[in-house]
Every structure is written in C-alpha cells, then in structure tokens.
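fyi for ur records
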Amino acid sequence: MLPSCPVGEDEGQDQRFRERTEEIERRILSQRAVLASGTKGREREEDPDPLRTAFQRDRDRIVHSKAFRRLKHKTQVFISPEGDHYRVRLTHTLEVAQIARTLARALRLNEDLTEAIALGHDLGHTPFGHLGEEALSPFLPEPFRHSEQSLRVIDHLENDGRGLNLTWEVRDGIVCHPWSMPAPSTLEGEIVRFADRIAYVNHDLDDAVRAGVIEPEEAPGQVFDLMGHTHSQRVNAMVYDLVRNSEDAPHVTLSDRLLQALDDLRTFLFDRVYLREDARDQQEKAISLVRSLFAYYLDHPEAVPAEYLANPGDLPTQIADYIAGMTDRFALRTYEQLFLPRGWLL
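which gave:
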C-alpha cells in the first residue's frame, strides 16, 4: 500500500496562510480598496481556500478556463494576421492585466481583484473581434454584447455547465468594463475599464503602423505632443497621469488633456483602421461567415453540441453561445466543412 500524503493535524492551521494575506490587505491597502475578506460572496457558497483569497481564487479559475485558452486564436483587430507580432485577443488581455495591476498597486487598491477582472473581461468575445458581435445581433432579441457574454461564460458555460462561481465584485467588473455599460461598482473595476482602453488604442496604433495601414505621423499631433512617440512612452504617460489624478479622487480618471487625447486617438483609429474602406470586403466576409453558421444551426439544431443545448435560454441563445465560443480558425474550418465542396480523393 502506498503511503498517504501527510495532512496537518489542525485543520484550522491551514487557514492561517490565507488569513495572513487578508491581514496584509487590511494593513496596506487604501480605505477605498475592496478587501477580499469583505467580498459580497459567490452565487453558490463555498468553503474558503486555505491559501488563496477569494479574488486570487477567481483569477486562477479564469486562467485555467477553456474560454481563456481560446483567446489565443481570436482576432483583436486584424483577421488572421500573417505576422507573428500582431496582437490577438489573449495578448490584449495580458496587456490590459499588466496595466491594470500597475495602476492598482500604485493606488493601493486590490491588485488581485483588478487582475481577475482584467483577465476575464473578454472571455465572451466572438471570433473575428467586434465583427462577430455585429454578425450575431440580428438573430437575438437584444444586441450581442461581449461583456454580457463573458458573464454568461463564467456563470453558465464553463466547467461543464456549472460555471466558475466567481465573486460578485469580479462579475460586476467584467460585465461593466465597456464604456457603453453602467460604471463598475468598484474602483478596481474602473481601473480595468481605463486599462482596456489605454491598452487597445496604443497597441492597435502600433499594429496598424506595423501593417502599413497608417504612418505614425498621421495620428493626431497632440497625441505625440502629450504622450510621446513610442508605444511605451504613451502607455507610461497615461498610466502616470491616471495615478496622479485618481489618488485622492472619488473615481478613477485621467486629466482632461489626456482624456481628450485618448478620445482623439480612438476616433482616429475608428476612421483610419477599424472602419477603413479597403478592409470592408474582408470584414463583410467575416460577418457573412458567422451569419451563415448561425442560419445553418437554426435549421439543424441537432448539429449544435449537446453541452450548449443544455445551457439556459432558447435555441438562438444556445447557438450564439456556441458560435461566440469559436476561435477564428475553428469558425473558418467549420464553415469550410459545412459549405465548401471537398476535394476528390485520388
């Protein structure tokens, strides 16, 4: 018989590791921070982890989820880019998390909560980026929103339909991270909202220059004047400005000048990169592909995997769950199998 692993005699002793971390939070974090020991809890009550705080546990559940792994093959801006250095949805998520953690630590807010929100904020993103959202919306009673789908992923779709059972604060920060949604209820959630925008406007500009879509000097002049000419200079300028303007403020914010520069850069990217005329043909193909898949599954619900048909909601919602979870390459391969003739075997 194999010897069993030793177990501590005093089960309460194991809790001291987590409790020590929680005590460190109480001592060093700002009074404005959300303490892990003060979480509003989970939908389903669980025994606390002996080592990790509630927010650390959430972060780990997100990182080990299937939805998180699929982000490596989902579009950020450029569909199926040929080069190795273009951002994808996973690298975008990692950049958001890095910026958010830096902000949270500088402001003495809860870094673990911030990181969990950042890592989970795009779990519900469709293949082909926001084009996938545009493609799915006509089939649903409400417009498809990736933040709401992220919440559906962590509440229902992951873990064989049981969900991840994350804390209320992480769920709130994830669903409220877009600027089109109500403001998050925590400052940590507000940090991720800003970190997301800071990350994507800067790395999308970087990728657009790398792709030859724009020249650096075409960007609004005040962007470079205020924030610098390199990617790192611009990110550093925004992060420092946000910390300086948020330290004693009731909400996380940038100075008026940098907030305007951020908005100007975002507007420029929409005009010259996201909605550029020479990309519309490929974008329409991606939208058509997703809609063709949706129409097929409406006519052939038996082709939808059983695990999705077991999810809450009607058939269109279940199909949206399935398609939204696809990576770009899986969606392309599925379309090819369903709609394109196969070559003759010789």
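The two ends are 57 Å apart (CA to CA). thats all i got for now
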